[in-house]
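Researcher: Re-running this chain for the archive, since the previous output was lost when a drive failed. Same request as before.
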Amino acid sequence: MAPLPFNMAILEFLADHRTASLTRFFLAASFFGNVGIYLLITMLIYVMWNKQLAIRLSVLLLMTSSLNGVLKIIIGNPRPFIREGTWLRKWAVSPKSAAALATEYSTPSGHAMGASAFYSYLYAFVKNRYIRIAAVAAIILIGVSRPYLGVHYAEDVLIGWAIGLSVALLAIKYFAVIGAWWDRLSYGKQVGVAVATSLAFWLLAIAVNHWRIDGQLREVVSCAGFLTGIAIARPLELRLVNFDPRSSPVFAKFLRYLFSVGVLAGTLLFFDIAIGMIPGKLALLVYILQYVRFAAAGFVSIFLAPLLFTKIGLAEGAVAGAN
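Model: Regenerated C-alpha cells:
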C-alpha cells in the first residue's frame, strides 16, 4: 500500500521546535506507554487490590495490542521521515529504539491505541477522582508524545485514540457477559479456545503480511502468548490458590509484588537466553519460542507467583465471593 497522505508539516514543525526539557518529558511519557509498563501496573493491581480488574485490564490491553499489530500490517503505512531517509536525524529517540521502529509500520499508533483502551476502562471502573484525572492525562500525554518524538503522524494518534476508546467501550459493555460465558466452559475448553484464538490471530497476521515471518509479527506473537498464559493460569489460581489481594499489611503486599516481578523477569530472561542461541535463519522456531516465552510469563504471573508467595505467608486465602 502507498504511504497515506498524512500531514508531515506538523511533524516538521515539532521537530524544528523541540527543547531538551520537553524532549525528556515526552520520552518519559512515551516510555510509560510501553506494554511492559501496563503489565507491571496490572500486576500491582492483581497482587495488591483487585484480581478481576487486573485480569480484565490485561486481556483488554493484550487484545488491543494484537489488533494494533494486525491493523499496522494491513494498512502498511511507513513511519514518518522513512521515505526521505531523515528519520535518524528527526526522531528524538535512542538509536536502538530508532533501529527497531524503522522496521515497523506507523498506522495506527500502538501507544495511543493501548493508552486509550487501558485508561478508558480504568476510568470507568475506578471512581477515585485523582485516578481518573491521571488516566485522562496519561491518554493525552502518551499519545501526544509520539508525533513530538517524530515516530508517528498526528493522524496515527487520532486513529489510535478512536479505536482504543471503541474497544474499551465494547469491553465495558460486554466483559461481564463474556466472563459469564467463559466461566461456563470447562477448563480444557478454555485452554483450547485461548490457544486457537491466539494462533488464529498469528495466522491472520502472517497472511496479511504476505506470508512473511518477520519483525512485523513480534507484537502479535508476544501478546497472543501472554493471553494464552493467562487463560491457562487463571482457573488454576482460583481453584488451587485463590489468594486475597487485600490481605496482609502493606509491606507484605509490596514484597509479594516484588516477588512476582522477580519471577516474571526471571522467566523472560531464561527464554531470552535460550532464544538467543537459535540461528537467525530459523525464524519460525524463534517466533514459536517467543509465543511460548510470553505464555510462560503469563502463567507464572497469574498462577505460579501467587502459589509461591502464598506458601511463604505473604498472602491469605480469599474471602467468599472474592476473585
